[in-house]
Structures are given as structure tokens and as C-alpha cells.
Amino acid sequence: MANSESTPSVAPPLSSELAESRTELLTRIQGLKQDLQGWRTKLDTQVKVYRDELSELKKSLNVEVEQLRSEFQELRTTLQQQQEDVTASLKNLGLQDVQPGDVKEAQDVKVEGNSEEIHALVTGEDSKEAQQ
């Protein structure tokens, strides 16, 4: 025991340094926790904003898709009606037993005939033939 009495005591200064260091670390940890909470709050807010924006975009796209579907259905109906009208017109002109493929061929022939007439008008071939 004589040995322990002769050793100088360093416990009190070390203890106060440890306590001070501990207090500093706790303060830093508390600051970091607050920073983390702030970041989480900002992140949660940003996620909510993005979700709301995505929801609005989804609604808008759904509306546009429905409009396009409706427009395509109208076009389909119009085309079917036009095809039926052409078929009826061809039947009235004396072309009996007209099939849908025949309607397409008749339309192609009409377009070819019209383009030949236009070509003749542009080049003046009709007027040359009429003069001869």
C-alpha cells in the first residue's frame, strides 16, 4: 500500500477532461440528430411534392388517352360509314356483288384516272390532241 500512496493522483484532471469531452460529443451528436431530422423532413416534403406531381401527370395522361380513344373510335366509325357509302354508290351505278376489296380497287382506279386527267391538263396534252 505504500506504493499506491506514493503515486500521484491523476484521476481528477482526467475525469474532468473526460466529462468535458463527453459533453462536447453529446452536443455534436445532438446537432447531428437535428440535422438528420431536418434532412428527413425536407426529403419527406420533396417526396410528397413529387408524388403529387406524378399523380397530376397520371390523371392528365389518362384524360388524353381517353380523348384519343374516343377520336379513334369516331374515325373508325366515319371510315366504316364512308366505305358503306362507296359500296352503296357502286351498287347503284350497276356494279352488283361488290366486295369490300373491290371498293378499294375501284377507289384506286378512280385515283389513277384523276391523276391521268390532272397530268394531261398540266402538260397540255389534251389541247394538242384536240388541235390535230
Task: Please characterize this protein's 3D structure.
The structure is a single chain. The chain has 132 residues and is mainly alpha-helical. The chain is built from 4 helices and no strands.
Largest sheet: none
How far the N terminus sits from the C terminus, by CA atoms, comes to 146 Å
| Whole-number mean pLDDT | 79
Helix-strand pattern, N to C? HHHH
Cα radius of gyration in angstroms = 45 Å
The poorly predicted ranges are 125-132
In a few lines, what is going on in this structure?
The chain is mostly helical and 132 residues long.
Q: Helices, strands, pairings?
A:
Layout: H1 2-6, H2 11-92, H3 100-123, H4 125-131
List keywords for this structure.
132 residues; disordered C terminus
